[in-house]
Amino acid sequence: MIEQSFMSNLEQFRKLFNPLPGNHYLHVTTEADDIAFLFDEMMQKVGGKFNLAIYSEITLHVEKPSNANIQYIQDFKQPFRALPRDHDIVVIKDILYAHQNPKMILKLAYTTLANTANIVIIEKKGVMDIEAVKEMLEEHEFRAPNEIDIIDGYDLVMAKKMHMWGNGL
């Protein structure tokens, strides 16, 4: 589970999302954390689908969200799998800077997001160069990137996928 500081901000974090019936959320992370359990609960309430991609060298035998479709990725060189235009939210936590190819992660997120859907990037404070991440998001056709100071000990950047002529998805 995530540190206590995040858990105290969970209700405020929840307010960033407004799941609708049939929504699909994807969480890409290193563990089945509080975000995973939050999204699992939210998707159950609206008849949605929750996908969880966990980067871990081993398949952990710990408590997992009950209705999540879970995929394990063995190392930080590999991509996660997700269908095109299948998700309404993608949250990438503690992965962008750990992955060997962060631009591939953003490209996959762009591909799997529906038009006008949101991407959220979360990293521990001090790990992420926020301005560089905002620029990288813009390069990958994500618009209106904003830093949101909502989680103690973590930086959070949120942006919206906009259907542009350049990427064609």
Molecular structure report:
This protein is 26% helix and 30% strand. By secondary structure, the chain is of the alpha/beta class. The protein has one domain: Rossmann fold (3-Layer(aba) Sandwich), CATH 3.40.50.150. Helix 4 links the parallel strand 4 (87-93) and strand 5. It is globular, with a radius of gyration of 15 Å. The termini are far apart.
Descriptors:
single chain; 169 residues; alpha/beta; Rossmann fold; 7-stranded mixed sheet; disordered N terminus
What's the arrangement of secondary structure elements?
Elements: H1 4-8, H2 10-14, E1 24-29, H3 34-46, E2 49-55, E3 69-73, E4 87-93, H4 102-112, E5 113-124, H5 130-139, E6 142-147, E7 154-161
Parallel strand pairs: 1-2, 1-4, 2-3, 4-5
Antiparallel strand pairs: 5-7, 6-7
Percent strand: 25-35%
Unreliable stretches, pLDDT < 50, 5 or more residues?
A: 1-5
What is the CATH first-level class name? Alpha Beta
Gross CATH architecture: 3-Layer(aba) Sandwich
Number of domains: 1
User: Rounded to an integer, what's the Rg over CA atoms?
Assistant: 15 Å
* Mean pLDDT, all residues: 90
**What is the number of helices?**
5
Q: Biggest sheet, in brief?
A: 7 strands, mixed
The gist of it:
The protein is α/β, with parallel strands linked by helices. The protein has helices at 4-8, 10-14, 34-46, 102-112, 130-139; strands spanning 24-29, 49-55, 69-73, 87-93, 113-124, 142-147, 154-161. The model is unreliable at 1-5 (pLDDT under 50).
